[in-house]
Structures are given as structure tokens and as C-alpha cells.
Amino acid sequence: MTRFRYPLLLALLLFPVLAPVAGTGHAETKHHIQAALVHAGVEGIGARTTEALAWFYAERGHAPAWDRGDRLPELLEALEDLARDGLDPERYRLSELRARVDAAGHGAAEIACTDLMATEAYLAALLDLALGRLDPDAIERIWQWGAQREGERLRVVMLAGGMLDDIEGAFDRARPSTRQYRGLRAGYARMLERARTEDWPWVPSGPLLREGDSDPRVPLLRERLQRAPDTDLPLPDNGNLLDAELAAAVVDFQHRHGLTPDGIVGPETLGALNVPAVQRLEQLRVNLERMRWLARKQPETGVVVDIAGARVAYRREGEVIWEARAQVGRPSRRTPRLKSEVTHLTFHPSWTVPPTILREDMLPRIREDIGYLERNRIRVLDHSGTELDPGEVDWDQPGGILLRQEPGPENPLGRLAIRFPNPFLVYLHDTPSKGIFERVRRQVSSGCVRVEHPVELARLLIEDGSDTDADQLKKILDDGETENFYLTRPIPILLAYWTADVAADGSLLFRPDTYGRDDRIARALAERALVERPLTARSPLQCMNAGAPS
After folding, report:
1. Which of 49, 114, 283, 355 has an alpha carbon 20 to 30 Å from 265's alpha carbon atom?
2. Taking a C-beta distance cutoff of 8 angstroms, is the pair 230, 256 a contact?
3. Residues 478 and 340 grouped into a single domain
4. How would you write the pLDDT of the chain (550 residues) with one tens digit per residue?
5. Domain of 310: which CATH number?
């Protein structure tokens, strides 16, 4: 059983329990609440909600919070509505709480028990909405993310205490206000409502389907596209003919599912069409949780890299003002999730070959043909920077060497690299491989992020991160010399991974889970029970069935 992490804090908050409780009316109920909280601190339950309960009741002098007739019904309604956030209302013991409310016990112990149970559900729900249901450090850690601080939890508790007369408003303020979260939540609710009554049909495999083709599977394809939550297209019934309207609907579907938008129903498109609705709901639940983690971590002004979508954006004062395509790490060399700050830009950079690329890519080529080094303008150096003769290096067992490619048109970093501290040796950069940006799937790099229009991004970084006129960029680029440009005000950068998003019109966008990260979050979210046992089952009141629901 987890011990309370801040026993001195709990003792200070609950110190009045050591003295007689003054006053009349709620005095006995207050005494039961205090006693239950002290016992919880001794016995130990999950720390996050326990601390929140201690803060909440200390702020109100341990008086009951749910003695107003309209508050509990509003709480029950708000808890039920959590289903639209991809959260299971039974995690907060909705049915048990509703039964207790219906039973309406009038003794002080019964009132205290109901009050504690309602507050536990209320705080757990607000904390889950504001900070995430799961611990990202345990499930999908982001480097330099930063652990949840007491201040974040305390802010939620103060919100809870100050909005008891507007429970719906408290829940709405706790959940992220970002366009992404609100859009995913609305899309999830639409799909959930439709999935309760119907699933979309399965389209059998067969030959490729193109505009103008006639095939007995076409009516199923038409029905499948019409049942999508964001489609509702008035597709004419042309029997087995794949007409122009249906072909356009296929292209729209491909756009929204990260597929090549060619209007051809081939194996990849067929596979996406036949993902069951329940699986798409799970994907949305996973990404709603990610958005609860990311909502307060995205920089108000700074760079955000969408790894799964292979895109990079620049935010200024909370609004995306620039966006471009990117090339990110392939599954065997994944782009890491991290949070850092852009400190400087390198113009016309040389490229020091990273150890993994040296070992797995370069050495086999050099062993086959040592002329590869000269053709690609790659110098061999020792770790002190002294140039070595490639002919004198034992390429079967090279040790203590670096390979460095000089600036130029074939340099993998192109004209510009954007640097930020991290232990993975990754950065954003230009690339000579421009054609890859035209692909839908752009998970091709060795971990770094290649940016489609890096000079435009550099201009924004210089505008917000220094007092230098961004027009000097042209001069620096035209000079052709390697130069580091240091920002006087480092700019935040976040590299994160999510597989569902929202288009500008509010429609849902799905991406393939290239790195295979969704399943772990889905399994963790499927755990129905609270992390901690119910407070009232661990208190002297013993007014609930002991133990959490399975």
C-alpha cells in the first residue's frame, strides 16, 4: 500500500482533529470527515487524490460539500458526461454514488460517507481531466517533461472548491481548452453515439477499385463511407458503379486517414476502411489522454513537432502561425519524444556522422569502397579533431574516429540546422532529399527531423528569440560560410507523438501508429478501478463495500 508522500503536510492540514470540534449543526459530520482523512493518511491510499482531499476539506474547515440539494445531481450528470472524454464514469463509482444518493441516509456518519465519496469522485475526475488519467512518465515518457508538481494539483483543488455551485463549469474548465482536445472530444462523442446502434460494413478484398469500375463490393463501399461519423455524404445510389462522387469520397477518406489520396481502393485503403468502429473509438480515447498530457505542455510560443503526422508547426501566443511537412525517424530509428529549448542555429553546417549511422550505414560502404569517402567529401578525424589518412585506418575495427562531411549541396543537413539540448543528438534541419516531402508516409530519417521550409522556421525563431533583424538571414545564407547564430531568448520546442487529430473543419484525422505506441496506453486506460481504494472503505466509517470494483 502506497504511503502518503507528504505526511507533515497532511498533519498540518488536519491538525484541528486533535482538538474538540467546535460549533453545532455539521459538527459531528465534520468530525467524521476529519477522522476519515487522518485514518487515510495513516493507512495510505493513492497519494494524488488523498492530497487533494486533504487540501479540499482543510480549505473549507472540513464542512460537508454536498449538503446543497442541487449539487449531487449535477455531479452525477457531469460524471456520466465523462464518457465523451473517453473516460469510464464507473472509474469514479458513478453507480455506487447514485445508489447512495438514492438511499439518502440522514445520520452524521452516512452524510459524511456520501460527502467523502462524492468529493473523491469529483476531485479524481477533475484531476484526470486536467492532468491526465495516467502518469505519462510511466506510460509514454517525454524527456525533460517534468513531473507533476504540487502546484498543478493544488490549482485543480482550488478550482473544485470555488465552483461547487457550477459543477458543469468546473468540469469544463478542468478539461483542456485546446482546439485539438475539444475537436477530438466532439468527434469521439459523434462516433460513440453511432457505434452504440450500428457498425459500418466490412468491404471484402478483391481487385483494385477505381473510378468507373463496376464491382459487387461497391454498394458496401458506399455504405461504409456514408456511415463514417464525419462524412454523411449524399452519395447517389448507382448500384455497382464506382462513380465520380464515390471516388471523391474515397479521396476524402484517404486524406483523413494518412493514405495516398489517389482515389484507388487498394489493400491499404481497404485495411483502413475495415478497422472496426470500436477500434477507432479506442484510438480516439488514447489520443484524448495524450492531449490531456500535452495541453499544458505545448509552448505558447515555440516549435511543436508532430512525429506521427510528420509535421512541424510554430505557435505564437497559442496560435499556429506556420506549419510545414517534415521527415521523421523510421520505426527502427525513432524520433524521440522530448521537451527542450532552441538555443542556436547553424548555417551551412558540416555533418558529424552519428555513431549509429557510422556503424550501420557508413562502415559497410567504406569497407566495400574506400573511395566513398572522397566522393562524398567526408573527412576522417580523431576525437581531438586531427585529420587522419583514410588509408591508414583499420576499417574492420575502427576506433577513436569521427567522420565529418563538409558543407555543400550533398550534405544531409542542407543549409541549416536548428539546435536544442537533448541526450539523443537529434535536431531539426534542412535536407537535399526534397522529393520525400511529397510522400504521405515520411518516417524515413535516422531520428532527426528534416523540415520542408527550414529558412521560414529560422526567420520565426530569430524574430522571437533575438533582437537581430531577420532580414540578415539572406546575407548569412548567401555568404556560404559555416556560422552559429545564438538566440538571446531560447525558444521552447516540443517533439510529441499522437495518432489522431482534428482538421480545420472539425473532422477527425487518423494516422497509422507507425511506432506501435497506442496499445500500451489503451491497455492502461482499460483498467476500470481507481488506482487507490476508496477513501471511505479505508476509514473508520466503513460505510461502503470494502475494496475497489474489479
Report:
1. 283
2. yes
3. yes
4. 334 444 434 444 444 433 333 333 468 777 777 777 766 553 433 466 777 888 888 888 888 999 877 899 999 999 999 999 999 999 888 998 898 888 766 677 788 888 888 998 999 999 999 999 998 888 888 887 665 566 788 889 899 999 999 999 999 999 999 999 999 999 999 999 887 777 789 999 999 999 999 999 999 999 999 887 766 667 888 899 999 999 999 999 999 999 999 999 999 999 999 999 999 999 999 999 999 999 888 899 999 999 999 999 999 999 999 999 999 999 999 999 999 999 999 999 999 888 888 888 999 999 999 999 988 889 999 888 899 999 889 998 888 889 999 898 788 999 999 999 999 999 999 999 999 999 999 999 999 999 999 999 999 999 999 998 877 888 888 888 899 999 999 999 999 999 999 998 889 999 999 999 999 999 999 875 444 444 444 444 444 443 333 2
5. 2.40.440.10
Show Cβ contacts of residue 513 under 8 Å, excluding neighbours closer than 6 positions.
283, 308, 499, 519
Domain total of the chain:
2
Tell me the β-bridge partners of 417: 346, 429
Label residues 169-196 b or e (16+ Cβ within 10 Å = b).
ebbebbbbebebbbbbbebbbbbbebbe
Q: Which three cell numbers stand for residue 197?
A: 446502434
In a domain, 264, yes or no: no
Is position 257 within any domain?
no
Same domain? 161 vs 307: no
Residue 281 in any domain: the answer is no
DSSP 308: T
Instruction: Give me the domain span that covers residue 497.
Output: 299-502
To the nearest 10 degrees (0 to 180), the angle between helices 277-294 and 518-525 is 90
pTM: 0.87
Does 511 map to a domain?
no
